[in-house]
Amino acid sequence: MKSAILQTATRYLLPILLLFSFFLLLRGHYFPGGGFVGGLVASIAFVLHSLANGTASTMKILGYKPISLIPIGLAISTVSIMLPMLFNLPPMTGLWFEEPIPVIGMIGSALFFDLGVYLVVIGVVLTILFTIALDE
Question: Which segments of the protein form a coiled coil according to its record (predicted)?
């Protein structure tokens, strides 16, 4: 069932939800939020688009299979965990740049860990839901 109202609403909601998920990702290493919550919101945006326009249409927007995000996210998270060991620090020690970036704030290894989690969550959620949707 394709609804014209849902398709029109999704056209506007997809970029807004993706922007909000990016906000949650950036906010996460200072306040509640982060990679997991941001990834869920981004996944919801694509699932909403899939409900309105069909899974095949959403897969065309993504341009690649969501399962490919999982190893990329795991690699980014692993690098951010192991990077402090190069400086003779324990794993998962926060490393921060000296100067803040105007809109984003202080950038450190926590942000890259959150980015990896963000990509893994999007990959896992969309892979599971799109697999279920395409099997029906």
Answer: none
Contacts of 126 by beta carbon, 8 Å cutoff, 6+ apart = 43, 46, 47, 62, 66, 69
> Which amino acid is located at 48 in the chain?
L
CA proximity to 49, closest of 111, 129, 106: 129
Q: Is 71 within 8 Å of 122 (Cβ atoms)?
A: no
Q: Which residues pair with 105 in a beta bridge?
A: 101
**pLDDT averaged per 10 residues in sequence order, the chain, 136 residues:** 85 95 84 87 95 91 93 96 92 87 81 94 96 82
**Residue-range definition of the domain harbouring residue 17:** 4-135
| CA atoms of 115 and 118, how far apart (whole Å) | 5
- Name which of 70, 97, 71, 94 is nearest 83 in CA terms: 94
- Other Cβ atoms less than 10 A from the Cβ of 111: the count is 23
The set of residues, in sequence order, having a beta carbon less than 8 Å from that of 80 and lying 6+ positions away, is 109, 110, 112, 113, 116
